[in-house]
Amino acid sequence: MRHWLTLCFILVWRDSDSVSAQRPIIPENFYTQEHLSELRAEVQELFYHAYNGYLNYAYPLDELQPLTCRGVDTWGSYSLTLIDALSTLAVLGNHTEFRRVVDVLSEKSFDSDINVSVFETNIRIVGGLLSAHLLSHKSGMDLEPGWPCNGPLLRLAEDAAKRLLPAFNSSTGMPYGTVNLRYGIPPDETPVTCTAGVGTFIIEFGVLSRLTQNPEYEAVAMRALKSLWDHRSSLGLLGNHINVESGQWVATDSGIGAAIDSYYEYLVKGSALLGRPELMEMFWHHLDGIERYMRKDDWYFWVTMTKGTVSLPVFQNLEAYWPGVLSTIGKNSDAMKSILNYHQVLKHIGFVPEMYDVQQREVRPNREGYPLRPEFIESLMFLYQGTKDKNLLAMGEDVLRAIQHSTRTPCGYATVKDTRDHRLEDRMESFFLAETTKYLYLLFDTENFIHGQGISGKLHRVASRSCMLDTGAYIFNTEAHPMDTGALDCCHGPTERDIWQKAWFPKESPKTNSPESSDDKLSIVSSPSVETCKKPHWQSFLWIKFPPRCPASSAASKSWTGKRRRSSLYSLLTCEAAPFMQMLCIGGEVCDI
After folding, report:
1. What are the annotated GO cellular component locations (predicted)?
2. What value does the mean pLDDT of the chain take?
């Protein structure tokens, strides 16, 4: 009975014209450890119902069709759901099944004559394999000598990533959207790619470079990000589709949702994961434009990238990740205001639809579905870690109840075709097992190893190097595959000079660029000196216009206390001199210094 009480909470209205004023009232005695244990068990059962349905009816095809209990290839015919679910098995602690799946995948090859999405293959396949590789030490597997710099899943991830590299062979360095896994860019491939499809590689490719000592992956990802940055408008905004050969914007509406979303996410996360404050400075600059032009009563509307005028006053399901991003940089108050808006849509309709007209307060025609997306739950998980507000647990339980009540089938869970009448569609995307179930479980599992506070870890040695694993410094890619930041210190990764040279002069020796620079864009004014290359970051020669918002280096290094606070005048992720422990504090709050 108490599971259903969260659906009946009275909402407090302070302002009838603002959804942000609504806040559910949660009794203090709710969500005890016993209650959370019951919710975790329910989410586990939900995961295994869908996972076993895939194994029984769909494997080795990509995804399950949960209404007809059949399988179908969708993104590339490479057992996509099995790979996508692997890191969730580790989070749930099912080490036996994790080891079994690793044995199955170890013999796999991506040498196939098929065209695949570069974006989806990267986040689901490369990201899933890298995450599983870094989590494999927790499963009791026999690790190869030199792990994490060696291993079957790492080799498999690199095999997939190498086949994506031809996509970056454009005149701008921005990747094409489709590649053939055997032959490269298809002859008839369009040069038009969405912004997220250009800027969502730095996590996976950065990790791959650090583990394999091959600078090419991180270099192409950085060059693509820099190219997008150079094409921003004077307002600091980006369009949503661009021609990767000409650099011309094809679609100039700017937002935080579909076709752009994970670009912003990867600036924040890539900065923390790889120690690149220049990415965080890019994000701050974009955030100024987002807050000034897109934010309206804690919604974020689509605007024109050159003038900032509202072009589409809607909320998209894919935008629900944004409060989670705000929470990771310490903006919990702003994040909570938006999450309350989104939750009210869920309470009104039963699900968060693909697109909701904020002015008309109704689902947009032809965008009424809900494909079991995770973004709203993702933000709940990050924001709960930063605030411990039990209202967020209640919102998560609302999502769980809706999924259980309306989408469960005999062999899995089905996409909601229309959120107005809850008709179903015969598809269960792989991200349901990679993201939706994982974030639900982590929301209710407050003691999971993923939530480590950086006060303990496991010392690991590789030859003459040592690194600290399992401190809780996990960065999720946009498919919810966690990467252990500490593991990147285990390997002799490429130097900054290697990455710089690969990014800008892949076929030549370093040379001096024109000293002239635009007043509107950041540019490299010269190749770095040897002294510059010994420094950990590019700031001294690349990121000229926006200096880091940091305290003095001596103060940053001497006064670290390990304590947390809810807000800060600057982000520690932008501080070049910040100690490693400070960069761990990104799970909902920033740290004191």
Report:
1. endoplasmic reticulum quality control compartment; membrane
2. 84
